[in-house]
Design brief:
Chain B: Keywords: Cell membrane, Membrane, Transmembrane, Transmembrane helix, Transport. Chain B: It holds the Pfam family BPD_transp_1. Chain B: It is found in: Cell membrane. Chain B: This is Sugar ABC transporter permease. The complex is a heterodimer of chains A (277) and B (336). With 277 residues, chain A is mainly α. Chain A has a single domain, classed as MetI-like fold, CATH 1.10.3720.10. The longest helix of chain A is centred in the N-terminal third of the chain and has 40 residues. Chain A is globular, with a radius of gyration of 23 Å. The C terminus of chain A is likely disordered. Chain B is mostly helical. Chain B has a single domain, classed as MetI-like (MetI-like fold). Helices cover 73% and strands 0% of the residues of chain B. In chain B, α2 packs across α14 and α16 packs antiparallel against α17. The longest helix of chain B is centred in the middle third of the chain and has 33 residues. Classes of the chains: A mainly alpha (277), B mainly alpha (336).
Chain lengths: 277, 336
């Protein structure tokens, strides 16, 4: 970094500039939190209400009433997506990275390309397939569809991580007579714990944030995840911004938590090598 | 860490792309030499290891190859709401493509897609680069502020889009209120009401969403430029601007290509932002190919036409993917 000791005052100025940049970039988030606490008359006023001094929690109460079900659907679907994703991705990463299975480069390449398929194409085809299987409005369809957003990423990240695990470790287990499945379960997975957690956290987030599959695969309101809940909420009543914003805040909580948690796990994953810089 | 976050984040697709390219593009495991070495007693492992990757292959076939093939086929079928009841859809050759081509909305949609993509890419990149350069210097709280900038990009896009939609309201929206207050405008800009402004509004939101991603990847690229280059240039009397144009920009070229091609892939398929901010309206003025395909399939229930537009998007994706893989290869080539 730029060494040399310029006056301390200059660094303070730079920090102030940095704070200003962050404040501008994050302003919409502040505005959401602010609005989630404001009364309706403040929300429609022609002058902005910068601070929720006369705040109300009515918005959050209505989140519980009207969005509670959607939040539960989102939670269930996201957890299911994490499970399906890890079930596919972890063994595949182990097979490719540690056991060097044949055709691994073809598989890695397929996964890499798979994520470039436009989402609307997937939605179109999956809707038709789900209709044929009578899975429209079923959380199973959403879990499977959402997993297509996560499997490539999770496999690739676990693969990179496992490449960094010394072969001696699994060989020692094999010498002790452990089967491959056992080695995978009791040696590889514990070692890869951080990468698994990272893959799981991001899978959760992708599924939680999914809107395209949610809006195409659910037609019944009580089966819809929270992203669709918000979307139909604004469609239905354009004035109740207080409740809409409160829902937005609640729907953002997993991302906020992730940022706090992932700091540690993502850093740990990198520390163990496997990814370029 | 930021590099991984960069790869892991919002650009889920793109994200893993970057990671995967590193892995897939490196024959014999350049990243970690010991992983590449095949242990002596391990030669037999090959096919039995296949049991572990078999589920993944089956998954690729069922969840990527099948939908892709099914969409390509639907593009040639008269697949409407009736098909769901009868279970059959007659083949109609290129009729869907002709119908889309002659749809007066189509040209506008293509132009919108191009403008939306170009505007998003350029400004995301420019602002992202500016921020990356800014945060490259070390100053108190620099790391914390840099991580905070990632927040917008971890939020569900539906949430961000909804907030922006409200901020763009004519009279009670804060964007107009702030601009009026600063005397930058004299009357409210009809962001989401006017057919001339809606595409601009949607593009602005998408730029806001994409800035963190660009910043993170470019920041990683900046970190890789050897400090000695700058020191040497400073000794030779180069000023800050010269150092930026003669060292930073050329050295960032490979990373920039990767960022831009990833951005391209990601921007063309943007859906959530447009749907929550403007729904493609008013009067289709902010419709792009992706939302148009959605409209054809899921609102007009002409799935065959939706599939046809989807297939155009696949063609675009193929071109962009080729560009991306080439950019990654170039970058790896230089890093070597």
């Amino acid at each position: 970094m730029s060494g040399g000791g310029p006056a301390k005052g200059r660094k303070v100025v730079v920090t102030c500039a940095g704070v200003l940049i962050v404040a501008v970039m994050l302003f919409p988030l502040y505005w959401m939190v602010d609005a989630s606490l404001l009364r309706t008359q403040d929300l429609v006023s022609p002058t902005p209400t910068w601070f929720p001094l006369h705040g109300t929690l009515a918005g959050y109460r209505s989140v519980l009433d009207s969005q509670g079900g959607h939040l539960l659907v989102s939670l269930g679907v996201s957890l299911g997506t994490v499970a399906v994703t890890l079930l596919i991705a972890a063994p595949a990463a182990y097979g490719m990275a540690t056991l060097r299975s044949p055709g691994r480069r073809a598989l890695l390449f397929s996964l890499l390309v798979a994520q470039m398929i436009p989402g609307i194409v997937m939605a179109n085809a999956l809707y038709v397939a789900a209709d044929r299987l009578r899975l429209i409005n079923s959380p199973v369809a959403l879990v499977l569809a959402d997993s297509t957003l996560c499997v490539p990423f999770a496999t690739l990240i676990l693969h990179s991580f496992l490449r960094g695990v010394p072969g001696e470790l699994t060989e020692a287990a094999a010498l002790d007579g452990a089967s491959r499945l056992r080695t995978f379960w009791s040696v590889v997975l514990p070692v890869a714990r951080n990468a698994v957690i990272t893959a799981a956290l991001f899978s959760f987030l992708f599924a939680w944030a999914d809107f395209l599959f949610a809006v195409t695969l659910t037609t019944q309101d009580d089966r819809a995840p929270v992203t669709v809940g918000i979307y139909r909420f604004i469609g239905a009543n354009l004035t109740d911004w207080n409740s809409v914003m409160a829902t937005g805040v609640v729907a953002s909580l997993p991302a906020a938590l992730l940022l706090v948690l992932a700091q540690r796990y993502v850093a740990a994953g990198i520390g163990s090598g496997g990814l370029k810089d | 860490m930021s590099a991984l976050l960069g790869k892991a984040g919002r650009t889920a697709p793109a994200a893993a792309g970057a990671t995967g390219a590193g892995a897939a593009g490196a024959p014999g495991g350049r990243l970690l030499p010991w992983g590449a070495r095949r242990a002596p007693g391990r030669r037999r492992t090959g096919w039995r290891a296949f049991a572990f990757v078999l589920p993944a292959w089956a998954y690729v076939a069922a969840f990527y190859v099948y939908p892709l093939a099914s969409n390509v086929r639907m593009g040639f079928q008269d697949y409407t709401v009736a098909s769901f009841f009868t279970g059959s859809a007659p083949y109609v050759g290129l009729a869907n493509y002709r119908a889309v081509w002659h749809d007066p909305q189509f040209t506008r949609t293509v132009v919108n897609t191009a403008l939306f993509t170009a505007g998003s890419l350029l400004l995301q990149f420019a602002v992202g680069l500016g921020l990356a350069v800014f945060f490259r210097r070390s100053f108190p709280l620099g790391g914390v502020l840099r991580s905070l900038l990632l927040v917008p990009w971890l939020l569900p896009l539906v949430v961000s889009g909804t907030v922006w939609r409200w901020m763009f309201y004519n009279d009670s929206g804060v964007v107009n209120q702030a601009l009026l207050h600063l005397h930058l405008i004299h009357q409210p800009v009809p962001w989401l009401v006017s057919t001339h402004m809606s595409l601009v509004a949607v593009t602005l939101v998408n730029i806001w969403v994409g800035i963190p991603f660009n910043m993170v990847i470019l920041y990683g690229g900046l970190q890789a430029i050897p400090e000695q280059l700058y020191e040497a240039a400073a000794i030779d009397g180069a000023n800050a601007w010269q150092r930026f144009t003669r060292i930073t920009l050329p050295m960032l070229r490979p990373v920039s290509l990767v960022v831009l091609t990833l951005g391209l892939i990601y921007t063309v398929k943007a859906f959530d932002v447009i749907m929550t901010v403007s729904q493609g309206g008013p009067a289709n003025s902010s419709q792009t190919l992706t939302t148009y395909a959605y409209q054809l399939s899921f609102q007009q229930l002409t799935f065959g036409r939706g599939a046809a537009v989807g297939n155009l998007l696949i063609l675009l994706a193929v071109v962009f993917a080729a560009l991306y893989l080439r950019a990654v290869r170039d970058q790896e080539g230089r890093a070597r």
